[in-house]
Records
---
Amino acid sequence: MDEKICFATSNFHKFEEVSEIARSYGIMLEHCNIPKIEVQAESLREIVLKSAILTRLYTNKPVLVEDAGLFIKALNGFPGPYSNYVYRTIGINGVLKLLENIDNREACFKSAAALIHENGVIIDEGEVCGYIVRSPRGTMGFGFDPIFTPYGETKTFAEMTTSEKNKYSHRAKAISRVFEKYVELKRTI
Ligand code: IMP
């Protein structure tokens, strides 16, 4: 596919993760210099849709935006769509403190991705569930990666390479679903 997709993110790790998936679909991904417009809303789907519409005002190219959050069961899904704010304020240690003396460590990462192109918009979601470990491990990745282990694994996301994380991750699932639909659409028009 000749046309480049512009991925609006300021997060280098996300760009790496999504680039690897794009390559497997023969899609060229460009790190576009447009700030992802941050929108506050209760659902990740609503966030990415609004954010993609606003970001598209800056370019004629197809635009991809992605938003994710960590949903902790014992905290009724907190921080969820507020994960970015929580990460910047109380951080990993603050989250571990909230879970002190709590045995139910179950948590899920959720991601929503929206791709706006000349014929419309494709939105999809992905999820990975696992548990919050007792203390941070690993130096790779970003955000809450050092405290999250997906079910079926012993490593945290921060102990995995990009390819390993992509086998499990919420983002890999959401993005793959979007790219799959995009490739199919391009094939038929
Ligand atoms: P964003 O709004 O999609 O950038 O995500 C909100 C926050 O969730 C980020 O600041 C990270 O702390 C966290 N987050 C999202 N995705 C991931 C991930 O794949 N690993 C670890 N933390 C993540």
---
Amino acid sequence: MGLLTGKTAIVTGAARGIGKAIAMKFAAEGANIAFTDLVIDENGQNTEKEIAALGVKVKGYASNAASFEDTAKVVEQIHADFGSVDILVNNAGITKDGLMMRMSEAQWDAVIGVNLKSAFNFIHACTPIMMRQKSGSIINMASVVGVHGNAGQCNYSASKAGMIGLAKSIAQELGSRGIRANAIAPGFIITDMTAKLSDEVKAEWAKKIPLRRGGTPEDVANIALFLASDMSSYVSGQVIQVDGGMNM
Ligand code: NAI
């Protein structure tokens, strides 16, 4: 028996990166996986194949997490296909960095839409199902910059601070219905999102990390597994930083 045997998990933005690592980790512990991404291209198809090889049910759904309508439809479809929704990981996210003085309205709206409104969309669609089941674990992917701020990322850090407030509010609203909600705040994790940073910026980050390395998607997935499973049955409304000790 795995830690998540028989559970259904939705992971958004999981064709690659941290979302994929979380979906794989959950599948290795026996969860059936419904994941979403903007398109299910080669990355998404590979993710599907790799998860299927672990012996669980899996399906990738093309859906824009920032769209309220798309999300309502995809969650209805997932519920019909899988029969339950036990775990929701709001992982889809983008960056469109810039200093406030130069930030366009479009940069602001895109990041808030994909990183924060998406979580509202999915929580709104999934919680009626979880309430009927009288159990559920919701995990919002935040960031250390949502706790501490970061010059040049006002849109991104506001969206991630929002993910923390959202998780804490849901934890308070729905705890009595058996639903837990927590946030993960990763630091510098090596994925496509951080690959585009210059070597100079990466070296600056490394200096601030006591463990002297960037994190791996699996480092984050391990915490997601803890929060998704009954190992954390008395943990709700928390933010767990996974950052090699960068922020204490
Ligand atoms: P990534 O860029 O490798 O993967 C993000 C995934 O989200 C991609 O597959 C992308 O297609 C998908 N996506 C983008 N817009 C979408 C939309 N509208 N609807 C559905 N899917 C969409 O990024 P990474 O690094 O795996 O990040 C995952 C999450 O972790 C994000 O929320 C990110 O903000 C957060 N995070 C990442 C950190 C890092 O250092 N890589 C640090 C802190 C937080």
---
Amino acid sequence: MSTPKAVYSLEDLEALAQSPLDPPVKLAVIGHPVAHSRSPDMHNAALRAAGIDSQYIRVDLTEDQLPQALQTFAALGFTGVNVTIPHKGAVIPLLDQVDPLAARIGSVNTIVFDHEQGTKAGFNSDAPGFRQAIRDEFAVDVQDLRVLLLGAGGGAGRAAAIQCANDHCDRLVLVNRTLEKAQALVKELQPDFGPRRLAGPLARLEAIPWDPDLLTRALDHIDLIVNCTNIGMKAADSALLTASQLQPHHLVYDMIYAPPRTRLIEAAEAAGARAANGLSMLICQGAISFEYWFNRRPSIDAMKRGLRGGE
Ligand code: NAP
């Protein structure tokens, strides 16, 4: 077995045609930067557990390298690729097919190569990965919840909002530092929130400014609170919500998984609420990508062990 590099460049990738690794490299995550990605840890563990003779690497690419890189992946017989920041939108025009959910979000994080047809198709596993993570963590479906998204104007927030809209959740409240982005999303999602289920005098879909008093009032009519911002990743980050704003009936999902216990999670637990971090979303979106590539479910236990560094 050959040891892969921590991060490959486009040149390194092209060199794999002459000097293949063992097991052969057939999967990758592409981004810029990409060194932080935990995807190889969980996917390589899942590949080994499934007895699939392939390995998964990280490739750092700039946007102008994407067309060449996609050709190289196809020439190397790649099964698929994950796409991370900042290329999730930029890959779309380079694909032959884009699944309707990925097209609606405007974001592809999974590419599947069909070598018989000579085509590449794009999918989004972040949105269904979010939905599955909520089900796994709290044993409830987003369709039955009143959901508040903090950071609805970012990429992850948009994916979560569109999944909630597709599932016709009971109520969706979008909060974003730049209010205009949340307002634009409300306009876009309005057709999904018709009068099918009424929430009394409350709007089923609305954007509210990032104001502590307005937020506290809004939280009276919310079941699930999701942090889709970057706030909480650094030790110096302020708490997004305080324990006094949260209530025991709240479910709090922080998309951040490093650190595992953010100040939001601490505040939720202090308020007697249930809380979970974003590790389950990382695993769920990875498992959905794996299914797109291999048409079978990966071992979730192996993925968890891989992330813990146990495999
Ligand atoms: P992004 O596109 O850059 O969006 C960042 C969001 O955070 C925007 O809504 C932004 O608001 C908001 N924000 C940033 N700094 C802020 C501040 N100081 N005050 C208030 N709001 C602030 O990033 P992303 O890709 O959506 O990722 C967001 C988070 O989700 C990251 O922590 C990422 O690690 C996590 N994530 C986790 C998973 C998983 O599998 N667990 C998957 C995807 C993402 P503005 O619009 O006003 O700038």
---
Amino acid sequence: MDKDNISAQDSYFTFLMKPLNLGFTQLKNRIIMGSMHTGLEECWNGFHKLARFYEERAKGGVALIITGGFSPTFSGRLSLFSSQLSNFLQLAKHRKLVKAVHVYDTKICLQILHAGRYAYHPFAVSASAIKSPISPFAPKALTAKQIKKLINAYAHTAGLAKRAGYDGVEVMGSEGYLINQFICSNTNQRQDEWGGSFENRIRLSLEIIREIRRTVGENFIIIYRLSMLDLHKDGSSWSEIEQHAKAIEKAGATIINTGIGWHEVRIPTIATVVPDAAFTWVTKKLKQAVTIPLITSNRINSPEVAESCLQNGDADLVSMARPFLADSQFVLKAMQNQSHLINKCIACNQGCLDRVFKGQRATCLVNPRAAYEDEYPLVKSAQVKTIIIVGLGVAGLSCAYYAALRGHHVIAYDAGNLGGQFNLAGEIPGKEVYLDTVRYFEAQLSLLKVEVHRNYKIGIEELRDIYADAIVLATGVKPRKLDIQGFDHFSVMDYETAIKNKSTIKNKVAIIGAGGIGFDVAEMLITQNENNNDWYQKWSIDRSYKSRGGVLQDEVNLTGKDDTNSEHENARTVYLLQRKNEKLGKNLARTTGWIRRLSLRKAGVNMMSDISYEKIDDFGLHILHQGKKVTLAVDHVIVCAGQQSENSLYQQLGAIGQPVHIIGGAKKAAELDAETAIREGMVLAYDF
Ligand code: NAP
Ligand code: SF4
């Protein structure tokens, strides 16, 4: 079958490709690009770039896009300079977005988000003056008069969205933002008509929907994002969720979207460790309570998983946000039965959320063009060049892919198989999806006819005589060797050997080095055949929903801290060690570091800082811990103390005058990370 002529009817994903009639309008399929703040919303010329970003996703076939959050008021902004829509003078730039998307018969809704006490500025407001554990700013309690004004402000923003041409709005009522703060009793301790009983606490959400509907009329989509699982003990009970959902429908919402967990709760909801479609059972539970369509979400990153959610009757629509950063053509590829060519989101948060929290523009670790479509357009290079790439870890793969995409003739060599460090990451429990990135690049190189030589260690002699416009060295890293007495003892192994031989590892282990890889290795050692039920139990999620908030206990909830003592003993004794005298994992990524620390603590891993290493012998690892001599009687010492660059070819090639470039870990092993490596590969390919 000619893939270019294939239509939605020919797709294997029949549930996903089915249109949805909303009465006054129709969605062409069941796939929604969920709200994702990119940071372009606040950049100079950002809306132009945002239009290119959305345009590429609309062209890729998605039925409906929900924008990043826009506040209806100044105090509701996430930070002082965050986006707001409340003035008609702002409409021109919004029209650009809408126009770019409508060309492809894709709908677009503006998300209205009031941060409440999550606002990172001193003008924060909330239901009550109770500070959030994840913000330094205490909010002021809104007066009754201010609440009325706020409802009008929501409606005003929705009216402006309609004038800009949007097909609808999404009212953000979940994840612990303002509306959620009114709903839950721990954050709403008001005595007036907006607090006290549940009916009073949901009044704000319902008044907002009613006022928006009154302002925009019937033929306009109103999506309400409902917190269906608060994941804290003061959260709503299931009967309250049902009661609220019915009232939302009655108030005039067109669709209800699923929200899971509050941002301040220490239970993972979107990270790599969360199983696929881990929360769609919650949406399904609500299906019998309402008649309007429901959207499900969280950790759905492939057409297969999305299709099975719909097939299973979990929801009417599926929302994915990060998967559209990873691959703008997700829907088209699903439609053309080419899901093997989808660049899967690996849920790492490194390129997207972690960057947004640092005030940087979001992009994607596996797709560095995301939100940079304007800077890196998909155009061929004016001149076809011959590019040799040595090393096909992710830096080399990325460079080979983008160079070939731009029309160059690419020949690539790897001494082993493709994927480098990602193959090791893929062996860590919960990170298996990393292997999909290797699979994706491999499939693309094959499509683009890149000449790939595996298990081929090309040497200087061959490279000296080869013709090339450019040689790219992406030869990666090797584990660092340490200068400790007894380092050659049989109990010592580097992380690469340990990961590749994990089944041979005995019960007592010391890990030297507590960076990303030390944490990964510790996670590997403590995880034994964990299944999905164990996962819910580990994180205290009550799937029977008998308890408020759907959570079994509240050991770390709403504290914002993860310094709890261990609660489970593990079959293995694991010591994770570092020389620095500071909390272990302090420099792990903001949105996922706490999960990794908590996971090890829950399993009873001994995390020790302020260590100096003395020697290794038959008695184990001898250390000084806070100045005191200690011997850790272990079977293995696994070294995760960083890397050294594999760059010997670089000097040699330079010396013989070949046009050579070096990228990724081969260039800089210190602080090497996959996001930088993949980006460097692309940026260099655009220079050719
Ligand atoms: P790393 O983050 O640099 O950590 C190296 C660890 O080894 C540190 O704990 C360091 O702490 C210790 N160390 C360094 N030199 C040492 C020496 N000479 N003797 C003893 N200990 C030494 O490196 P990595 O863990 O290998 O990770 C490499 C890169 O991959 C990093 O950028 C990391 O962020 C990334 N990565 C990320 C993830 C993720 O999930 N996001 C997972 C894996 C890797 P002390 O100096 O205090 O002892
Ligand atoms: Fe997904 Fe990671 Fe890309 Fe974010 S950076 S979209 S989590 S792959």
